[in-house]
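Quick one: structure for this chain?
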Amino acid sequence: MSKQPFRKTPPASRERPDVAAARKVLAEMWPGPARESSVALLKALHVLTRDGGLNLDTRRKLKQVLHLVQLLRPSIDALLAPVNGEGGSDPVIADLGTGKSYLGFILYDLVVGPAGRGSIVGVDVRTELVERSQALARDGGFERMSFVAGGIADTMLPGGRADMVTALHACDTATDDAIRFALRHEAKVIALIPCCQAEVASLLEHAKPGPIDQLWRHPMHRREFGAHATNVLRGLVLEAKGYKVRVTEFTGLEHTLKNELILATRHQQGNPLARRKLDQLVEQLGVRPGLLDVMDAAA
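Got it. Here's what it folds into:
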């Protein structure tokens, strides 16, 4: 018999002081009144303090995750929607580099859990974090959440399927590994928030002189241009693979400087025009980042 989830909200007259305090601090950011089960989850994640408080750093982190949930919700709702007038599908959402699993658990609490179908799989190379998340999912009644200990680059989910892939602040080329993971699992939706893109800047430092090399002559410009070029190339790779790509601001700069969301939705098998644009840009830059191996494999 499965364990019962966190207890349901008691009548207001019996509400504990810590729950009342938590609801008060969450009122301005949580979508709707926070259930006691949600309060218990946020305490277990160490987002809320024992007495229901919220410090400045965790408030900022929670706002980021909640905003991302709202940005992803239309895509998840589309994956959950009925197919050909029949019952809704049962999508698999893979959260890569899941860490302490803030995003995965809150996605489940607000979207996947209430939907009654769909599952979330967290992937992280750190075994201790995976074991901690597994225990929280088991004790909290998150029956359709599971976790895999392994690197993004070489992990394959059971059944080889992931309908949506998320990677929140996967550092440097870990975002490229997330793209490779999504492609080999034939993901319908990919949501990336890149972080610390250093590979292209390093390659540009040793690139041959060319007509646009003044764009990265100075180290500061090289870091900034390299990060920008990295995400432009990622977007073109996804478009060439048949995804419709939207790049938008993830959250305000007052919360984080790493605020670029790349949201890609599969709508065709490939895009020859995007492939030509990608090849042209690579030729102009004079460098070939590692992610282009996914295009070479398809050649």
